[in-house]
Specification:
By secondary structure, the protein is α+β, with helices and mostly antiparallel strands. The protein is built from 19 helices and 17 strands. Helix 1 packs antiparallel against helix 6 and helix 14 packs across helix 16.
Length: 629
């Protein structure tokens, strides 16, 4: 319910009630005054009627005819509606209404009149009309006593006098209808101006209420507009009172809210840009406490914004990293310098990343550096690509060198090997030491020939063509070849690649060479026995991944970065040439695939993963029957 309605509903009954009560009291006052005036008239008439000398005698003798005449005279002179003469017991000795003669009145008015020694006036209802009932006692002096003028006055005033007895009571009723008509007329004359005044008062109240509530309505409408997003609403200030002051304060609030909202919208846009960025962004105070971070930074640390903001850099990164790497660069930035550097960092959610870090000084309005803005960009993949490019360049260089050397050595080596074999065939078994030396030369020449063959393969001296190859058949041949090696090292091989494995785009001989090298490395890493698991997966619809997982001695993290470098090997001298994995990498790259080696650390085994393109779509290779081709 509106305030105006509430005020109207409050003031209207109040005014109406006030007018009504005032009118009622005014009417009662008028009626009371009129009744008093009529009462005085009745008393005056009673005093006049007491001057009738025959009245006491007629009452005492109960002279009906005499009393009737007197009562008729009283009725004519006063205009009374009725007149009666009562004996001391209340019985009607005479009445202007003959039918009432002999009636004994026992009502309260009569009893009060009989008991009173004075004239009584009381308004009563006689039938449908109100009357003023006037009752006065009539006194009688005993026989033989003279009535002096003083005694007459005593009788008239109802004063007690020795020997005086009550002869009876005269009652007559003066009509009050005219008095009531006058009262109603006066009441209307009073009520009409009062009602008019009340209407004027209500009108004034409505006008004042409207003028009072109009600014409030404007404020309410303005607040509704603010709630709907219409900012900057201004209301005219039309008064200097509290409402005007409230309006002025509202205008200030509205304008400030508009400015704040605009600033908030800009901040939300910047926050949105920062949060959708993949760059890790932070705002760090001079006391090394995070004041703001974006979502990328939170995800990298597996924390919420509330868990990072308000914390020190030391609490997030640890004291060693902070003191050795972060703090020097932060201090330099807080001195007003832009800093850029690259380093390796360990993130809880992302692991070890190579990152490019930029620090920018943030200055306040006075030009003082209060914060450092730190932007961290993950360039691990870029670093890896750079390393791969460098590795490829090294491999290309080494390949060219190896190809040239292999060609130069291959012919003399063939001559040495042929000569040694001819000499061995011509010498008798009794040659003794000479024959043993020739066998040593032959074995060494064979080993050199194998190395030269690897060098020629590494230098792509033997090109190959690609076509559909069955991984299942290839593994069957490789595992048959390495069965004795696995048994010698007490290694159990678990081949989980099923017969329905799809065909891949490769060269059978080169794929056998890669799988032989990887499986042989895995077997040799488990010198004390272990388990070798071979399984497959599908990274997507166009590639097959072959995983070769052993439980061997694993690889040191430092060596893991060098395993594809030519001639790098961790095997004892004479056990490896350091060309196996580089050749495998080159072959898989020629297939259009990838080769990766992963090891959690020393003693935790190694996993080699070969990803090769499928000869056709995955669905076609699997086929409805799942048969191997």
């Amino acid at each position: 319910m509106k305030i105006s309605t509430k005020l109207f509903l409050f003031f209207m009954p109040t005014v109406v009630a006030g007018v009504t009560v005032s009118a009622i009291f005014s009417r009662r006052a008028v009626e009371s005054g009129l009744l008093q005036e009529v009462g005085r008239k009745g008393v005056s008439l009673a005093e006049n009627f007491l001057e009738i000398k025959e009245l006491p005698g007629f009452l005492a003798s109960k002279d009906e005819m005499g009393l009737i005449k007197i009562l008729q005279k009283i009725q004519e002179n006063s205009g009374a509606l009725y007149a009666m003469a009562l004996d001391p017991s209340g019985e009607a000795l005479a009445h202007t209404d003959v039918a009432q003669k002999g009636k004994k009145y026992m009502d309260r008015v009569t009893q009060d009149a009989l008991a009173s020694r004075r004239t009584q006036c009381r308004a009563v209802m006689t039938g449908p009309l109100p009357v003023l009932d006037v009752a006065f006692p009539v006194w009688l002096r005993p026989v033989g006593q003279m009535a002096s003028e003083e005694d007459a006055l005593l009788l008239m005033s109802a004063q007690s006098s020795e020997g005086v007895v009550r002869a009876g009571t005269i009652r007559f009723g003066l009509p009050l209808d005219k008095i009531l008509d006058v009262s109603k007329l006066i009441f209307r004359q009073i009520l009409e101006p009062m009602a008019f005044a009340a209407a004027i008062c209500l009108l004034l109240i409505m006008v004042v209420t409207y003028r009072f509530l109009r600014p409030i309505k404007l404020l309410s409408s303005a607040l509704e507009n603010l709630g709907r997003g219409r900012l900057g609403v201004v209301i005219p200030v039309t008064s200097g009172d509290e409402i005007g002051d409230l309006t002025f304060r509202f205008n200030e609030m509205s304008q400030e809210l508009a400015r704040t909202t605009v600033s908030k919208e800009f901040f939300q846009r910047y926050e949105f840009i920062a949060n959708i960025s993949k760059e890790m962004m932070t705002l760090i105070r001079r006391d090394y406490i995070y004041e703001a971070v974006n979502e990328a930074y939170c995800r990298a640390h597996k924390k919420t914004m509330q868990e990072i903001t308000g914390k020190t850099v030391t609490e997030i990164w640890g004291r060693e990293t902070f003191e050795a790497l972060i703090r020097p660069n932060l201090d330099e930035c807080l001195r007003g310098n832009e800093i850029h550097y690259q380093t390796w960092l360990e993130f809880p959610a992302l692991g070890r990343l190579y990152v490019d870090i930029s620090l920018y000084p943030y200055r306040n309005g006075a030009g003082e550096v209060t914060h450092a803005v730190v932007i961290t960009h993950d360039i691990t993949e870029q670093k890896s690509l750079e390393a791969q490019i460098l590795q490829s360049e090294k491999l290309a260089t080494v390949g060219q060198l190896a190809g040239g050397i292999a060609h130069e050595i291959n012919n003399p080596l063939a001559g040495i090997l042929t000569t040694a074999q001819l000499a061995l065939s011509e010498l008798p078994d009794s040659a003794g030491q000479i024959k043993d030396d020739l066998k040593t030369i032959e074995i060494s020449a064979q080993r050199c020939k194998k190395i030269v063959g690897n060098l020629l393969g590494f230098s792509r001296a033997n090109p190959f063509s690609l076509g559909p190859v069955s991984v299942v058949e290839c593994l069957v041949q490789v595992l048959a070849l390495l069965r004795n090696e696995a048994a010698f090292n007490h290694v159990q091989i678990d081949n989980k690649i099923g017969a329905n494995a799809p065909l891949v785009q490769a060269s059978l001989i080169e794929l056998q060479q890669v799988l032989t090298n990887l499986i042989l490395n895995a077997i040799q890493s488990m010198s004390q026995g272990g388990t070798l698991v071979i399984e497959s997966s599908w990274p997507d619809q166009d590639h097959l991944a072959i995983h070769i997982r052993d439980s061997g001695q694993g690889i040191e993290p430092a060596n893991l970065k060098k395993i594809f470098e030519p001639f790098f090997t961790t095997k004892p001298v004479g056990k490896g040439t350091g060309l196996g994995l580089p050749i495998c990498l080159r072959i898989i790259q020629e297939f259009g695939g990838t080769l990766s080696i992963d090891s959690p650390g020393p003693g935790k085994g190694t996993t080699a993963t070969v990803i090769i393109k499928l000869a056709r779509g995955l669905g076609e290779n699997l086929g409805e029957k799942g048969e191997t081709r």
